[in-house]
Design goal:
With 301 residues, this protein is an alpha+beta fold. Among the domains are: 143 residues, Conserved hypothetical protein from pyrococcus furiosus pfu- 392566-001, ParB domain; 55 residues, no CATH class. Helix content is 30%, strand content 27%. The protein contains ten helices and 14 strands. A six-stranded mixed β-sheet has the order 2-3-12-10-11-4. A three-stranded antiparallel β-sheet has the order 5-1-13. Strand 10 and strand 11 form a beta hairpin.
Length: 301
């Protein structure tokens, strides 16, 4: 009996060796996997993508960005007042606008369908335009549950059920930026190793004629599966290759031509195509982030 949570694995975006490696390492039924069948599935998806590239090469091109409806514009002020939003979108041009999910290019190979269903239950079957805005741009969100502990003299561990847990940055703080802490002596400065979660705003990158999904894969899938196509999101416009290196998802940075210029790249709809994606049960996991530090003291000449 399969265990774990059901996921959609996007065959349309993965090389064969990646797919076979994933199925061997992460699938709940990996021990009984039929590699010949896996290869056949991957080849069928590759053949289907070749057909789509020939039939609809410009499917992802000339993606339209429409203004936000007037009734929703007052909510933009709440989004832009969020300090997390201001920091996350401080270094690229952006607008809060409406895009069509049918034209959105995706690069994430794995989506939890169980989480998609949880999000759909949270949203409900017939959301109002304001509820849809708050679902896509949750300025009043709570961080996922998590735990933190010290696991050594110079190491700490953070654990969460959310795969969004990540190391955010290392930063130098002034003493007046830290409250509730009493040092054993006068403080010269504080070095913080910050662990947390992504900004959680549905976000696409506008690069040339294409829209690349950058954040919010599960919410985008939840909406697409419900038949909702036109959604509000944060659109960042990138016009220089160096901006792509800073902002784009890792897969896009590694292979930009595949997503930005080649005919018919992977699209959001492909997660729900039985040929282009495979349903696989993945054993339940927790995300752990471990951070450590080292100290050196010496007299300078």
């Amino acid at each position: 009996m399969p265990t774990g949570e059901e996921h959609a694995y996007l065959l349309a975006r993965s090389p064969l060796d990646d797919y076979l490696g994933f199925m061997a390492d992460y699938a709940a039924d990996a021990a009984g996997a039929d590699r010949r069948r896996l290869v056949a599935e991957w080849k069928a998806a590759a053949d289907r993508m070749e057909e789509l590239r020939a039939a609809t090469p410009d499917r992802a091109d000339r993606a339209e960005i429409d203004p936000l409806p007037p009734g929703l514009r007052p909510l933009v002020a709440h989004v832009e007042a969020d300090p997390v939003f201001r920091r996350a979108f401080s270094d690229a041009e952006y607008e809060i606008a409406v895009v069509d999910l049918d034209a959105v290019v995706v690069s994430q190979k794995l989506v939890s369908l169980e989480h998609v269903r949880r999000l759909q239950a949270q949203l409900g079957p017939d959301p109002s335009s304001e509820a849809l805005f708050r679902f896509c741009l949750p300025f009043d969100r709570r961080p996922p549950d998590h735990r933190a502990s010290r696991i050594g003299d110079d190491e700490f561990a953070f654990v969460s059920e959310s795969s969004d847990l990540r190391f955010l940055e290392a930063v130098m703080l002034r003493p007046d930026q830290v409250t509730g802490y009493q040092a054993v002596g006068p403080v010269a400065g504080v070095v913080a190793l910050v662990v947390g979660f992504g900004s959680n705003y549905l976000n696409v990158l506008s690069i040339g004629e294409r829209l690349i999904l950058n954040n919010g894969n599960h919410r985008a899938c939840a909406l697409f599966d419900l038949g909702v196509r036109r959604v509000p999101c944060v659109v960042q416009t990138l016009t220089h290759p160096d901006e792509i290196d800073v902002h784009a998802p890792r897969a896009v940075k590694r292979n930009p031509d595949f997503y930005l210029t080649e005919p018919r790249p992977p699209l959001l709809a492909d997660y729900f195509d039985p040929v282009l994606s495979r349903r696989v049960n993945v054993a339940l996991t927790r995300k752990q982030v471990r951070v450590g530090y080292s100290v050196e003291e010496k007299d300078m000449p």
